[in-house]
Specification:
single chain; alpha/beta; eight-stranded antiparallel beta sheet
């Protein structure tokens, strides 16, 4: 190991501006688990065992289960702009080693102890690194021993200011956002306001106004203090949106439901005219492609042989107009469980725009719901920046949605109904970057690109496995805790797996909670009292149980979505009757 490190250090020293470690030193504590305990490693399960071991008397046995990768982490101080080498000896099926927000490696199978190695260089202002080891869901226990992080330990550079307080939003106009923040400790020359990695303002005080912004655009800012010695770590982010948005006419808190318009199932067919007035957004399910890659979307109304009580097209359109006259929004939902849509080419993209427009125009609809499931969205190898995606199915979908928005204008209603696998799971695993499923988090680039045009994101909080929240704990569907944790992630934003980038949270008025209407509608049914406990926590900050909101309260939370209107009718309108008056009673 020593000779290997020397070679890595010599190579790293040739890089301009990168400091090579002056001497090799393992800066991890309890690196061989010889203390007989896990501390100071933080592990999701797992234990220290006496066999198998590579050296010494102990090794780590990772606690992999069907719902956990058995991740263990240790955070250590490092020096900025410095080359490091991370190594570990591992065995088992699917073992991963890496640095959170940085490089990683893995092995699919090691019957005896095998060395994994990762080289990385810290950022210009980086003072800590989190090392991780984990296995993969349901693949069995992994083992690790003799973990080494080679390089100099780090201490905060003397004289650098402390981190400023989290920015707060001030006055907002069509073209500007005002910010203020808590003063940093130490000697401070001034503050830099960042949007991403770009400096948007440099000031000497603790407030700034960012100007020359577009109308109705979303922005996320951090602040760093600086002096002659250097720059502090960046503050926590704050997100805001300029004013000047077109009013879509939705109520502050909305009830959203899918209507089985193209098929029948055990819940039966519901005519558009028979949908109760409580439903504020009605999603027509589903428009589906002629083939997965054609982009040619067709909406075929349920045939009379399958739905004996189906109305005529004329009656259907008249009922839509009646709903719209009441201020309701009727959308075409594209995809669903069986409608795989992969816009792999620009020709498919253009056909998607043309065919969806034809459906909207024929029925006079208010917008579009994107309900891509299954294998519609994925990320190609190397596509790790959700802000600048390169995978064709992602890039072409974003382009198509922007074209539809431009065609129909500011009142066009755009909603999305991804599964947790495509959104919140991106906090742990993003695409194939960790050698896992290349669909994890695949909605994030689409949501991010459309955030200024997105009306409501209602993630399906059902048909989901356990998902790790911002508290580092796994949350399981079916109770208030799951909806609180999953919604808080969308509001607060979250680091995206090991990409080193953070997905900025959405505005509360863009966020809904997706739920099955009844036990037959989907796995993860939540009783009304538990749903309302979750909403109360998110809106008012009370009744949150043991969970602390990272994104703060959301008085403007848009509301609740359900699959489906038909299932709710089948069960006597329990969802509607429970939740519509509750939503109307919120401040």
């Amino acid at each position: 190991m020593r000779k290997i490190w020397v070679l890595a250090a010599l190579v790293a020293g040739l890089l301009v501006g990168v400091t090579a470690p002056a001497q090799a030193a393992n800066i991890l504590a309890n690196a061989g688990f010889e203390s007989g305990s896990l501390s100071p490693w933080a592990c999701d399960g797992g234990s220290v065992v006496g066999s198998p071991v590579r050296t010494g008397s102990h090794a780590l046995a990772g606690g992999v289960t069907a719902g956990s990768t058995g991740q263990c982490t240790q955070t250590v101080a490092v020096q900025p702009n410095t080359a490091y080498t991370l190594e570990a000896w591992v065995r088992g099926n699917y073992v991963y080693l890496g640095v959170t927000g940085g490089s990683s490696t893995w092995t699919p199978s090691a019957t005896d102890f095998t060395k994994l190695s990762v080289a990385f260089t810290t950022g210009a202002n980086q003072t800590s690194a989190q090392i991780f080891l984990h296995g993969w869901y349901g693949t069995g226990t992994y083992y690790a021993d003799d973990v080494v992080l080679d390089g100099p330990g780090g201490e905060p550079q003397p004289g650098v200011p402390g981190t400023p307080g989290t920015p707060q939003l001030g006055a907002i106009t069509d073209t500007s956002i005002a910010l203020s923040w808590g003063q940093a400790s130490g000697t401070v020359t001034g503050y830099r306001v960042y949007e991403g990695s770009t400096v948007k303002a440099t000031v000497t005080g603790t407030n700034a106004t960012i100007s020359n912004l577009g109308k109705c655009t979303s922005h996320s800012y951090t602040v760093a203090a600086y002096n002659d010695v250097g720059e502090s770590a960046k503050s926590q982010p704050v997100s805001g949106r300029t004013s000047g948005c077109v009013n879509t006419g939705l109520p502050k808190h909305a009830l959203i439901g899918y209507l089985h318009a193209s098929f029948a199932n055990g819940s039966g067919y519901v005519r558009m005219a028979d949908v109760p007035d409580a439903w504020d957004i009605i999603d027509l399910a589903f428009g589906e492609p002629t083939s997965p890659t054609s982009g040619d979307i067709r909406f075929t109304r349920c045939p009379a042989g399958e739905c004996p009580n189906v109305e005529s097209d004329e009656e259907f359109i008249a009922a839509i107009r009646a709903k719209q006259a009441q201020g309701k929004k009727v959308l075409i939902s594209i995809g669903g469980q069986n409608g795989q849509v992969q816009l792999t080419t620009t020709a498919a993209r253009d056909k998607f725009v043309q065919s969806v427009s034809a459906i909207i125009d024929r029925y006079g609809l208010d917008g579009l719901d994107v309900d891509f499931e299954g294998h519609s969205l994925y990320l190609d190898a190397g596509d790790t920046d959700f802000r600048n995606p390169t995978t064709p199915v992602i890039v072409n979908l974003i382009s198509a949605l922007k074209s539809l928005k431009a065609r129909y204008g500011g009142k066009f209603v755009l909603t999305m109904a991804p599964e947790t696998f495509f959104v919140q799971v991106g906090h742990q695993f993003y695409g194939g970057s960790g050698a896992g499923d290349n669909r994890t988090g695949a909605y994030l680039p689409v949501i991010h690109a459309m955030r200024d045009d997105l009306t409501v994101l209602h993630v399906q909080d059902y048909n989901s496995g356990p998902v790790m929240g911002l508290d580092g704990q796994y949350h399981t569907m079916g109770g208030a805790d799951f909806h609180i944790a999953m919604t808080d992630m969308v509001k607060a934003g979250f680091p995206v797996a090991n990409t080193g980038r953070t997905f900025p949270g959405l505005r509360p008025d863009q966020i809904g909670i997706g739920l099955p209407a009844a036990v037959s509608a989907g796995n993860g049914y939540t009783p009304p009292a538990q749903v309302q406990q979750a909403v109360t926590c998110l809106v008012k900050g009370t009744g949150c149980g043991g969970y602390t909101l990272r994104g703060g309260t959301s008085p403007d939370l848009r509301g609740l979505m359900t699959w489906s209107v038909n299932w709710d009718r089948y069960y006597g309108w329990q969802f509607m009757d429970s939740h519509e008056p509750f939503l109307n009673g919120l401040p």
